[in-house]
Amino acid sequence: MVDELPDTGEVDPGEAAEDEFDESYDPDSDAPAADDDAAGPPGPVNWNLLTADAAEEEWLALNEWVHWLRHTYGLPVAVIPPFWHRHPELVWELSALHIHWLCAIHPEAKGSAMLVWHRDFTEAQERLRHWTASCGTRLTTDRPTRRIAWPGEPDTDPIEDIIIPNREEDFVEYMHADVEARRRAEDQFIAGLGLSTGEVP
Fold first, then answer.
1. What residue spans define the domains of the chain?
2. What is the dihedral of CA 66, 68, 72, 75, to 10 degrees?
């Protein structure tokens, strides 16, 4: 039986280094940091059900991450166009990649998680190329994604390109319009609850 070593009050260098190491900080990287306060890896984002406040948070986080992604990997406009935020198909794909990336860098992730992410990222780039080419968005111009009217549905409006001189201003305006639309829907829902119960909302 080995006697226990006396407590000298000295701190193990390995433990000290581990305690002092902040995984969220990397002076050589501008990558967005993961949320250390989260109890576990984030779940998927359902953009159809986000509240106004949650949508604003997701828009800002996704926009920051997409900038990091395109700069880090040198992605062309054919993969991630400037006006991706105007096209739901691109928003859903990029949002899924973002959550996938957050899960891959989470402390609870396996060591091979980033390899899996890069494999899926390679596949996602082909889908992004397809949707970017299909919707017709370009470096300085954009147009709504073409929607085909089925029999019995009203004809769709003509598709026209518009020139957008400032991408960041357009993003902020688009985000605010989306958030305000969600907020109006929330207010209408709450007002409807008040009418159904006879209470003043």
1. 52-147+160-172
2. 30
